Amino acid sequence: MQEPQLLQEEKVFKDPVHRYVHVREKLIWDLINSREFQRLRRIKQLGTSYLTFHGGEHSRFNHSLGVYEIMRRILETFEGRANLNREERLLCMCAALLHDVGHGPFSHSFEKVFRFHHEDWTKAILLGDTQINQILCTVGEQFPQKVAEVIAKTYENKLIVSLISSQIDADRMDYLLRDAYYTGVNYGNFDIERILRVMRPHEDGAVIKFSGMHAVEDYIMSRYQMYWQVYFHPVTRSAEVVLNKIFKRAKQLYLEGYSFEIEPKHFIPFFKEQIVLRNYLELDESIAFFYMHQWREEQDPILSDLCNRFLDRKLFKYVEFNPRHYRVLEECKQLMAEAGIDPDYYMEVDSTSDLPYDFYRPGEEERIPIMLLMPSGQLQELSTKSEIVESISGKRRFDYKLFFPLDKILSLPENMSSKIRERLEVMEDV
Questions:
Q1: Higher pLDDT, 266 or 323
Q2: Nearest one of 230, 219, 97, 122 to 167, comparing CA atoms
Q3: Terminal alpha carbon distance of the chain
Q4: 395: confidence class by pLDDT, cuts 50, 70, 90
Q5: Which of 96, 131, 314, 414 is paired with 337 by a 20 to 30 Å CA distance?
Q6: Average pLDDT of the segment spanning 331-351
Q7: CA torsion 68→72→77→82, rounded to 10°?
Q8: Rounded distance between C-alpha atoms, residue 155 and residue 347, angstroms
């Protein structure tokens, strides 16, 4: 491999989380300026969370630069400690920069309706007919495939994979700090300077010096709090439910031959499930918002109402839901249908779960644990040394909520409205 071409002068991005993002390699600069990477400016990092936390408007572009910067700093820390050649260092930085390049508008809500995973589109962008692929190929013909393998966690070098995909990686560290900053909460803050200082390379993945264990404990608890206080916030989840129903309704109407006022040409490949890479890259949140503004004027009352709800933040209310009350839920859906409110679009049980930290157990899906480098040189799994982490390790927490349009229920005749509300109260008996 030739020596990586450097820019004549280092480029910097002013960043509110890391102060500066430094770019010296021409390859990285070219990737940032590629059409596919610039598209990430038009996709929010936190999906619908801006409807809960008004500051949460930052983009996938914003986050991806941050992950790259953390990776660059990790590699500086590893200088003289890790046996990574020039290509492998570039591989780490490219994987960090491009790990989210396959995200679509509103990310996970969009994926649920149209039944695909952004990871597949990331691979397609890296290996397909794209500017990113052409730029990566300047390193070597096989380089795009290597980047794709790192992001897919199939690359042979476990150390490199762990830096971008593990329980303490560049991706997680950036999104916790960044999302906390933009949402205005303190939960996601932790001492990243300390963690980077005590991180060490090992053949099976990055490890943490034992003296830095308490900084890692703080990081894990920050992650736990961010998931339950920010990522799983019920208002955000309500917005996701409404958004999911919008896409679902638009797709059903198209398949039934409904005549839209303006043909939703950007969505037609998704409705037909005949998506090619060009279709995917043409769609971002600005396009999705344009169609939602059009659909709020459509003759179909369900699509129009759902778009109005999302755009005007008139979201669904919720009750805590006990899964053992599914029979009562079916009764409630039947009453809603009898009242002229389609339960397929106006009632949804949403479940979330999180596993704050876990370690590999034989016979289960492999998880990359956090390993501590002891003063003796031996490695010990984090939860065997930390009472705090041991107390939450392997403990998955679940949360169920039932979302519904309270305004529509209250507008029904009193007899029907009270029947539905009685059943809602029963289902909230947790």
A1: 266
A2: 219
A3: 62
A4: confident
A5: 314
A6: 96
A7: 100
A8: 43
Q: Which of 26, 98, 45, 38 is nearest to 68 (CA)?
A: 98
Using CA atoms in the order 329, 331, 332, 334, what is the torsion angle rounded to 10 degrees? 130
307 Cβ contact list (under 8 Å, min separation 6):
246, 292, 293, 295, 296, 298
Q: How many CB atoms lie within 10 A of CB 112?
A: 14
Q: Quick check: 348 and 427 in contact, CB under 8 A?
A: no
The answer to whether the CB of 164 falls within 8 A of the CB of 151 is yes
Q: What is the pLDDT of residues 151-189, one digit of tens each?
A: 999 999 999 999 999 999 999 999 999 999 999 999 889
pLDDT value for 366: 53
Contact between 367 and 359 (Cβ < 8 Å):
yes
Q: Output the six-digit token pair for 64.
A: 């991806």
DSSP letter at 266? T
- What's the pTM value of the predicted model, to 2 decimals? 0.95
Return left, alpha or beta for 118; rule: phi > 0 is left, psi -120 to 50 is alpha, else beta. alpha
Q: Could you tell me the two tokens for 39?
A: 């598209």
pLDDT of residue 2: 63
Q: Which of 278, 277, 274, 250 is nearest to 264 (CA)?
A: 250
pLDDT tens-digit map of 112-129: 888 888 999 999 999 999
Coil, strand, or helix at residue 322? coil
